[in-house]
Every structure is written in structure tokens, then in C-alpha cells.
TrEMBL record:
GO MF terms, alphabetically ordered: phosphorelay sensor kinase activity
Organism expressing this protein natively: Nonomuraea aridisoli
Enzyme class: transferase
Name recorded for this polypeptide: histidine kinase
Reactions performed catalytically: ATP + protein L-histidine = ADP + protein N-phospho-L-histidine
């Protein structure tokens, strides 16, 4: 997260440095060019004064030697030309070679012969290779007899500009480096509570209500947020615990009176006549008491299973190894056939309360409610990184319109009202699978033998756990 914060801050800092650095770089370059121009202007002004005297007296030898020495020392051709542009004094060959490469030379020379001082020519940009042409008239006003012209190579000046720009860029990088050096730990410190809140929220979504955020680290605002988060979670956890405790305590407290009532009702059996209406009332009362006891047992089991809210990795092979034989025995007793088609090596996130308990409930539903001949358990991995475990049968099934209601607590199909059950099994399984980040779906099952439709299928989808995280000595079950 702090990387994203730096992605926002660093470009802003770069824009700020650029906004300050670009005008400063332009100013530095212009100042270097101005200094060079002022130097050349002073040179041609001095040569123009000497040329005026030399041309008026005819003593040009000293000026010729000085112009040659100037060219030798600085590499800048300086020449005295007449009004026709002919070189009178100076290095004629070097001047002509330099003049041919400067298209601005005629304009500047014409202005100087007209008696005006020329503006500097050429571009100051370091990627341009034009020279600086400076011309000074010899004589005054209508008495101009020629001009002194210098053609200066600006490569050294442009090199100095590049050096200064490099220095400015290095200085501009210092605040950026300092910003990153300071912002990285500071942003990590500021955002650490946010990451912890995110991790805590993820754990809570998986059913762990005991997790709390660190309210001692980070800025004051985030510490207050963490304290509020912890206070909220304390209230939620207390409410959930009170609810579970109430269900468990109520079920437990009702068990003894209900058992006593059942014993009292059953003790009336010897006193009932065989053909009277009392026998029917007695049977109804006993059946209702048994149903109430099953309901209390289911409520207690629900409270115990929901108290276990931590999902953990498990090998599907290990779960099946402890249950397949028992399922075969149960289906054989009910006159049914069990088929298991599960590839080895699947590892997934186990719901709170255990994957085995969820599968036991689904197998139990198939045995008690479907009237099926065949019960099939299969598994596979879908591309989304999810393991699907399906329990299908070829029995009665339920209508598509009833499937959503079947996952609600205490709901029972009208066809199963006389079959022992509480209507809590599928609802509890759906809650536990959801707590592990999975899903319990109800679908069409296997085709019925008479071709009248399909049976019932319960599909459990749970996240895959990579095998690299699995222990090497995990138990395995042979394909069955």
C-alpha cells in the first residue's frame, strides 16, 4: 500500500522540482551565453578601436599580428573587413571557412556596416551547433569604413551549460531521494495499522471473532479507528457468544424436563387399553417427544459446531480414509450402493467443525430422505482454484423452487414431514462451508432409474490449498 502512496507522491515531487528546475536551467544557459557574448563584444570593440587608428594611419602590421595571435590563442577567427565584405586584416582563410557555415553572417555584417551594433546570433541550446557571430563597426555614423567580425565556436560554452544542467539535475535528485528515503518508512508506519485492519477484517470474514487490531501503533487517527474497531468486535463477539450460550444452555436445561416428561408418558403405556383412542394419543405424544429431543440434540450440536470458527488446510484423502468404510456400511444396511470417485492428492481449506462432519450430514440426508438406490461421492478441481465435492443420488430429489428454502434453518420439504429430522443439517453445513470461504450448492443429482428425472445433489466448493504447503507425510486413501 505504501508503494502506491509513493507512486502518488514521487511524481508530484518530480513535477515540483521540474517546475523550479526548468526555469532555473534556462536562466543558467542564458547567463552563460550572455557572458560569452559580452566577452566577444568587448574583444571586437577593442579591435574596432585599434582598426580605426590603424586604417587611418596606414600602420596595420601590429593589428595584423594581434589578430593572428588572438586566433592562435582562442581559436576564434577575428577579421577586419571593408564595406564590400573583403577581408583587410586577420586570418582570411579561417575566417572564410567559418563564414561559409554561418547563414546569419551577412545580416549581422550588413547591420555593422550600417553603423549599428548587432545582436548576438546563434542558438544557446546545447544541442545546436551554430556559432556566435559578433560584428562592430569601424568608424562612426557616415564615416564607417569597415567592421570587425568574430565567429566564435560555442562548443565549450555549451559544454559548460550541460555541466551546469547536470549539477542542477543532481541537486534536484537530492530532495527526491530524501523524499523516498523519508516517505518509505513514514508511509509504512502510517499504513501499518491499515494493513493490520485489513488482515483482521479478512480473518473475521473467515469466522475468527477473536482477532483484534493493534491500537498502539500508527497516527492518532488510526489508533482511534483501531480502538473503535476493537470495541465493535468486542460487542459482536459478546453478542454471538451470548447467543450461542443461550442456545446451548436452553437446550441443556430443556433436556432433563423433556426426558422426565417422556418417561412419565411412557409409564402410562401399561394402563392403556389396546383398542381405545388413548393408544393413538399415546403414540402421537411419544413421537412428538422424540422429535423434540432430536431438535434439542441438533441445537446443541449446532452451538458446538458454530463455536469452532477457524478454517484450516486438510487432505481430502485423509478425511475419506476415516469415513468411506462407515458410509459403505450405512448404505449397505439401507439397501443402497455407494460409489466414490475422488482423485488422490486434493488439499483444501476445511470448514470449522470439520469437513468430515459436513460430508456425514450430506450422506445422512441421502440415506434418510432420498429413497435412492445409488449414492455417489465425487470431487474435482475447477480452474478458479476451488475443490468441489459432490454427494449425488438417484432418489426423489427436491424441486428447483425449494432448493433455496432447503438451506434455511428448520425448513423441511412437505414430503419429509414424517421422516425423522430437524431441518437444521443443510443450513448448518452451508454456514460452516461459507465460514471457510466456500459455498454449498443444491443441484440436480443422478438420473433416476425409471427415467422420470434426476435425484438430489449437494455440492461443496472450498478453496484449494497448494500442495507445496502440505506435509510430505500426509495420509492417503486408495482410489475407491
Amino acid at each position: 500500500m505504501h508503494r502506491r502512496l509513493l507512486v502518488v507522491l514521487v511524481p508530484l515531487a518530480v513535477l515540483l522540482v521540474a517546475a523550479l528546475g526548468v526555469p532555473l536551467s534556462v536562466t543558467v544557459a542564458e547567463r552563460e551565453m550572455q557572458e560569452t557574448y559580452v566577452d566577444r563584444l568587448g574583444d571586437v570593440g577593442r579591435f574596432a578601436s585599434l582598426a580605426d587608428t590603424a586604417l587611418s594611419t596606414g600602420r596595420t602590421e601590429a593589428l595584423q599580428l594581434e589578430l593572428a595571435r588572438y586566433h592562435e590563442l582562442y581559436g576564434i577567427p577575428a577579421a577586419v573587413i571593408d564595406t564590400s565584405g573583403t577581408v583587410l586584416l586577420g586570418p582570411d582563410r579561417a575566417y572564410q571557412e567559418a563564414a561559409r557555415a554561418e547563414p546569419a553572417l551577412p545580416r549581422i555584417v550588413t547591420a555593422a556596416l550600417a553603423g549599428t551594433r548587432s545582436e548576438p546570433s546563434g542558438e544557446w541550446a546545447p544541442w545546436d551547433d551554430s556559432a556566435l557571430v559578433v560584428a562592430e563597426p569601424v568608424g562612426r555614423d557616415s564615416e564607417v569604413v569597415g567592421a570587425v567580425v568574430t565567429i566564435s565556436d560555442l562548443s565549450k560554452t555549451r559544454h559548460r551549460i550541460l555541466v551546469r544542467w547536470a549539477q542542477l539535475a543532481a541537486l534536484g535528485l537530492l530532495p527526491l531521494v530524501a523524499l523516498v528515503a523519508v516517505a518509505w518508512p513514514v508511509s509504512a508506519w502510517v499504513l501499518r495499522p491499515v494493513r493490520e485492519l485489513d488482515a483482521a477484517s479478512s480473518r473475521i470474514s473467515q469466522g475468527d471473532l477473536t482477532i483484534r487490531a493493534d491500537a498502539e501503533a500508527g497516527p492518532v487517527e488510526l489508533r482511534r479507528l483501531a480502538e473503535s474497531f476493537n470495541t465493535m468486535m468486542d460487542a459482536v463477539e459478546n453478542a454471538v457468544q451470548r447467543q450461542r450460550a443461550f442456545v446451548s444452555d436452553a437446550s441443556h436445561q430443556l433436556r432433563n424436563p423433556l426426558t422426565s416428561l417422556r418417561l412419565a408418558v411412557e409409564s402410562l403405556e401399561p394402563h392403556l387399553s389396546t383398542g381405545g383412542n388413548g393408544r393413538q394419543v399415546y403414540d402421537v405424544a411419544v413421537d412428538e417427544l422424540k422429535a423434540m429431543q432430536r431438535m434439542l440434540n441438533s441445537l446443541q450440536a449446532m452451538a458446538r459446531m458454530e463455536s469452532m470458527r477457524t478454517a484450516s488446510p486438510v487432505d481430502l484423502d485423509a478425511v475419506l480414509a476415516t469415513r468411506v468404510e462407515r458410509w459403505r456400511a450405512l448404505t449397505a444396511t439401507a439397501g443402497q450402493t455407494l460409489a466414490v470417485d475422488v482423485p488422490p492428492g486434493l488439499r483444501l481449506l476445511e470448514p470449522p467443525g470439520g469437513l468430515g462432519s459436513v460430508l456425514d450430514e450430506l450422506i445422512s440426508n441421502a440415506l434418510r430422505l432420498s429413497g435412492a438406490r445409488l449414492v455417489e461421492v465425487s470431487a474435482g478441481v475447477v480452474p478458479e482454484g476451488v475443490v468441489t465435492i459432490a454427494v449425488r443420488d438417484d432418489g426423489q430429489g427436491i424441486d428447483a423452487s425449494e432448493r433455496a428454502q432447503a438451506l434455511r434453518r428448520f425448513w423441511r420439504s412437505p414430503r419429509h414431514q414424517n421422516v425423522p429430522g430437524t431441518g437444521l443439517g443443510l443450513a448448518i453445513c452451508a454456514d460452516l462451508v461459507g465460514a471457510a470461504g466456500g459455498e454449498l450448492r443444491l443441484e440436480d443429482g443422478l438420473p433416476r432409474p425409471d427415467g422420470s428425472g434426476h435425484g438430489f445433489a449437494a455440492v461443496v466448493a472450498l478453496p484449494v490449498v497448494p500442495r507445496a504447503a502440505a506435509p510430505s507425510d500426509a495420509p492417503a486413501v486408495s482410489p475407491v
